Amino acid sequence: MFRLMLVLLLAVSMPPVFAQAVKAPAPAYEPTVGQEGKDVVWVPTPQVVVDKMLDLAKVTKDDFVMDLGSGDGRTVITAAKRGARAMGVEYNPNMVELSKRNAEKEGVTDRAQFVKADLFETDFSKATVITMFLLPDINLKLRPKILAMKPGTRVVSNTFTMGDWKPDETAELGAGGNGNCNESWCTALFWVVPAKVAGSYKTPQGDLVLKQSFQMLTGTLRTKEKTVPLEGKVRGEEITFKAGGKEYRGRLNGRQLELK
Ligand SMILES: C[S@@+](CC[C@H](N)C(=O)[O-])C[C@H]1O[C@@H](n2cnc3c(N)ncnc32)[C@H](O)[C@@H]1O
């Protein structure tokens, strides 16, 4: 009885500061722009640029979008809001947890997933759209894996290039462009993984020799009358080129090139 009274007395007389310290929730994690990351620091893509990146890639509900180095999750969450399935790969576990909380706030946890992983050790071959805001040398390291993806896979990068693989489209949203973006890092670069089409083909239009550098095509078209040089592009599996003043369109079907 005496012991019980002592416990009650202690509880009542406990200083309020101590009582508060026990109850106070852990402060929410707040990232700092420029904080260290494994291979790249964290700087968020401005939301207008995220929107433009997903516009360029024409993201729909049928897509599986992967953001390599997903930061606070904004690109993944925006893609999920467009109905796509989306996954962020992020090395910093605090950022992963923050992204999950952000996805919850935005009501997209059913479509937005985040994994704590190294992007260099992650299989992203199932993605139909890749987004990234990394660095030029990291883009270059990833390039062979990206070029080996299914033709037609769309790739968007904030600001940083892919070496001599020139973008199919560029959108400048900063002061030099349409001015919607008032921060730094305001350029969206867009590529489509090209099918490998280099080779020789016999077509009803003539014998075609295609040389390929990424999406750019050169070569020759030989008809009964003459051989003419050609220049063109391959976008996914769609081929377009000009030869002898005429425009041709085609698609590679297995080893067969169907030209129109
Ligand atoms: C410049 S931020 C871009 C964040 C986000 N994609 C965006 O556009 O707002 C790069 C992110 O990559 C993460 N990162 C750096 N190296 C990584 C690696 N090897 N694997 C996964 N994430 C990495 C960093 O922690 C950082 O959050």
Task: Characterise this structure.
- It is a single chain.
- With 260 residues, this protein is of the alpha/beta class.
- The chain is built from 6 helices and 14 strands.
- The strands form 2 sheets. Strands 3-2-1-4-5-7-6 form a 7-stranded mixed β-sheet, with helices on one face.
- Strand 13 and strand 14 (256-259) form a beta hairpin.
- It is elongated, with a radius of gyration of 26 Å.
- It starts with a helix and ends with a strand.
- Mean pLDDT is 92; it is low at 4-12.
- The site of S-adenosylmethionine has 24 residues, from helix 4 and strand 2.
Topology:
Elements: H1 2-13, H2 16-23, H3 47-56, E1 64-68, H4 74-81, E2 85-90, H5 93-105, E3 112-116, E4 129-132, H6 136-147, E5 154-158, E6 169-172, E7 187-192, E8 199-203, E9 206-213, E10 216-222, E11 227-235, E12 238-243, E13 246-253, E14 256-259
S-adenosylmethionine binds near residues 45 and 158.
